[in-house]
Amino acid sequence: MHYTRVQRFYNSGSPRIPNRGKPGWVIVVLATFLSVGCAGFRACGPEDDAWGADKRKHFVASALIGAGATAVAAQRNDTGDAAAMGFSVALAAGLAKEGYDLYGKQTCWSWKDLVWDVLGASVGVSLAAWATD
């Protein structure tokens, strides 16, 4: 068989990042996202109990999500990377829940719920990393 070389009409090299080394465009993008995202932001007030029953649910759910994601990620990655992935997945779930509360249920964003999400994710990921190590 005889193969002929096909001329390519694109550059297969690494993509060029515009303004590399100049963080100005990053600041503009972040400022835009922050100003748009805060337009309808309603944080919960003092009626949000830091030790309420829903906080236990946030802790347990984040611990289970973090442990499960860490265990799955540990099958193909080392323990440190798996723990980072598990924590990220659990925190993303907590942020999604707060976003749903704010925009879906039209209630409020609870920073106290996120604190319990971070604590639960930390415990779940730590236990899963310890068990898989």
What secondary-structure arrangement, pairings included, does this model have?
Blueprint: H1 24-37, H2 53-73, H3 79-104, H4 111-132
Helix pairs in contact: 2-3, 2-4, 3-4
Task: Explain this structure.
The chain has 133 residues and is mainly α. Helix content is 62%, strand content 0%. Helix 2 (53-73) packs parallel to helix 4 and helix 3 runs antiparallel to helix 4 (111-132). The longest helix has 26 residues, at 79-104.
Key terms:
4 helices; 62% helix; 133 residues; single chain; flat
The gist of it:
With 133 residues, this protein is mainly α.
How does the overall form come out from the CA principal axes? flat
Number of helix segments? Answer: 4
For the record, give the distance between the C-alpha atoms at the N and C termini, rounded to a whole number: 52 Å
Beta-strand residue percentage: under 5%
Mean pLDDT: 83
Portion of residues within helices: 55-70%
Quaternary assembly = single chain
Succession of helices and strands = HHHH
Task: Supply the helix-strand structural class.
Answer: mainly alpha
As a whole number of angstroms, the C-alpha radius of gyration is 22 Å
Report on the biggest sheet.
Answer: none
Low-pLDDT regions: none
Total beta strand runs? 0
